Amino acid sequence: MWGFSNAALPGPLPSYFILSITAAMATDASAKVIDGKSVAKQIREEIAAEVSRMKDEIGVVPGLAVILVGDRKDSATYVRNKKKACESVGINSFEVHLPEDSSEQEVLNAISGFNDDPSVHGILVQLPLPSHMKEQNILNAVTIEKDVDGFHPLNIGRLAMRGREPLFVPCTPKGCIELLHRYGVEIKGKRAVVIGRSNIVGMPAALLLQREDATVSIVHSRTKNPEEITRQADIIISAVGQPNMVRGSWIKPGAVIIDVGINPVEDATSPRGYRLVGDICYEEACKIASAITPVPGGVGPMTIAMLLSNTLSAAKRAYNLQ
Amino acid sequence: MWGFSNAALPGPLPSYFILSITAAMATDASAKVIDGKSVAKQIREEIAAEVSRMKDEIGVVPGLAVILVGDRKDSATYVRNKKKACESVGINSFEVHLPEDSSEQEVLNAISGFNDDPSVHGILVQLPLPSHMKEQNILNAVTIEKDVDGFHPLNIGRLAMRGREPLFVPCTPKGCIELLHRYGVEIKGKRAVVIGRSNIVGMPAALLLQREDATVSIVHSRTKNPEEITRQADIIISAVGQPNMVRGSWIKPGAVIIDVGINPVEDATSPRGYRLVGDICYEEACKIASAITPVPGGVGPMTIAMLLSNTLSAAKRAYNLQ
Q1: What is the per-residue pLDDT across B105-129, written as a single tens digit (0 to 9) for each?
Q2: ipTM entry
Q3: pLDDT tens-digit readout, A203-224
Q4: Matching NCBIfam families, A to Z (chains A, B) (predicted)?
Q5: Yes or no: domain B61-145 corresponds to CATH 3.40.30.10
Q6: Which backbone phi and psi does A129 adopt, to 5 degrees?
Q7: Is A28 helix (H, G, I), strand (E, B) or coil?
Q8: A232 noted as active-site residue
Q9: In chain A, where are the structural domains located?
Q10: Shortest Cα distance from A20 to chain B (angstroms)?
Q11: What's the mean pLDDT in B137-146?
């Protein structure tokens, strides 16, 4: 079983947390809820304090530039949320919105402008890009010092190598590990299984766990016995996008579960006609695991918090601040 | 059990191969010997043919530059072997030998010269460097197009990322996978365990297996139950440098074993007073595994063959040849 130090728990618990514990207890849940919303809130407060200190001490405000191409509604929502999050901690936000039929060169020009702009410390290109553009060309154009998404292969290479340090760690996997840290979950020497091997979550999450001395296995669509392997894990990070794929029988009693999946499933009782569930079958898992992130309210809020954290780090690095 | 297609076996078997099978049978061995020496010989013949074709077609001879700093005897031997291997396939070799007390700048100058030299297509800095030099600074100075060792973080990052292609794959792990390919060992969907997580072998070997759709686990010094995890593997690649660490009880019947370790152990009966053994206890493993590399004569000869292969690729790429 995992030991949780109360001292590592983030601040006072919000009221919905207590409600969720009560609801869970009614179904014999034993798992502690890893409250990403509350942790993210605390991290944003820490960042706001640092941003303020930076402004006072050297008169510099960190800046994040977001490039949005086209009119996808979901992308527009993500960009709006990032902008709001920046404002909430005092980070300046810059936005370029290009039409769907822009050329690759127009996007590259926007990136180049932000690369050269000293008031911009982080640059984020909202994905997916329109299909006529080559994602790789565009992401590679972001200067490594402002690659707050951490997707540049040079950052990934440094993440993989012992003795090297990436300038930035991709936000979602960084958020997963931060949750483990803030809840006092020991990683060193533990068996960890990462389900999914995407460039933006699964693969960097595995590299991060490996850096912290876990014994890591990566389970993916070609794995023949995912249930058997997952059941050996003390820590599970799942990022596949399959609703309720990981059943109770996949989980070792006492395991800690970080569920990155955010999958809409039909729900006639919901006003929107759907609700969001994770990759993990929560109602089964919460009876077996020792701790688990809910969906929503688990990893989701952490991703934006880590983006703000990376932007702050970029600005500090630009001015050699600790 | 693994199926081996005879069609995939390299050329006619040399006489010592048959001898070694006979000797093994006397101890109830069931494992096929994965004959790296023979495979490496065949690869070198293939490379020699390509080098010759390239010279005929466009008048270009691939060139490998090696930079040696200091007077370590083992390093001098490695450099001499690489030079001889180049000659044997018709690749030009260039060498700079700098004294032990050279400055970092002198090494960087040598690299810079080779970076700019169009007759040099691959650059290799023999490691280890003297302790007053920062390895990272020196390796990063090799232009990515000539990084035939594949150690540049940009290459490692591309190796880790789906949909990206590294310019070069590090020679020893590339040799391990090449042995599996040439012996017709299926990798996709198999459980693979890599023992050791070094930047030059274990980590890139895990990334390569992952790229080929194996389900990969990495076992290292902090792993609590290495025997239990290793016993689940269909394919084992070991690169830790501990003589005979992996015993028969660690091995699943029918597993395929690639032993990267080359460890000297005292042996009074040997004229040199020592003999070389791998990380795997060969005499136990050969009774349980379906195939295994011997030490010496397994992975060792493959490393230099892959260096030649990377140098040929670099030269072809420089002239846009297929």
Answers
A1: 999 999 999 999 999 999 999 999 9
A2: 0.89
A3: 999 999 999 999 999 999 999 9
A4: PRK14186.1 (NF010783)
A5: no
A6: -85, 160
A7: coil
A8: no
A9: 61-150, 170-301
A10: 35
A11: 95
Provide the 10 A C-beta neighbour count for residue A266.
Answer: 8
Write the pLDDT tens digit of every residue in A284-304. 999 999 999 999 999 999 999
Q: What is the pLDDT of residue A17?
A: 42
- CB burial of residue B248 (10 Å; 0-12, 13-18, 19+): middle
Query: pLDDT for A12-35, tens place per residue?
Result: 444 444 444 444 444 567 899 999
Helix and strand numbers (H, E) in chain A are 11, 11
**B158 CA to chain A: closest CA distance, Å?**
6
Q: What are phi and psi of A148, to 5 degrees?
A: -65, -15
The CA distance from A236 to A191, in Å, is 9
Instruction: Flag whether residue B216 sits within 8 Å of chain A, measured between CB atoms.
Output: yes
B306: tokens are 């892959």
Maximum CA extent, chain B: 57
Q: Which residues of A touch B213 (CB under 8 A)?
A: 220, 222
Residue B297 — left, alpha, or beta (φ > 0 → left; ψ -120 to 50 → alpha)? left
- Residue A299 identity (one-letter amino acid): V
Residue with tokens 């991290």: A43
Q: Does B210 touch chain A (CB under 8 A)?
A: yes
B105 catalytic per annotation: no
Q: Which CATH fold topology does B170-300 show?
A: Rossmann fold (3.40.50)
Q: Is B126 a catalytic residue?
A: yes
Question: Which among B88, B40, B42, B74 is positioned nearest to B300, based on CA atoms?
Answer: B40
Domains B61-145 and B170-300 fall in the same CATH topology: yes
Return the CATH number of A170-301, one of 3.30.1330.30, 3.40.50.300, 1.25.40.10, 3.40.50.720.
3.40.50.720
Q: Which fold has domain A61-150?
A: Rossmann fold (3.40.50)
Q: For residues A208 and A88, what is the distance between their CA atoms, to the nearest angstrom?
A: 28
Tokens of A50: 């640092």
Number of A/B CB contacts below 8 angstroms equals: 100
Cβ of residue A158 closer than 8 Å to a chain B Cβ:
yes
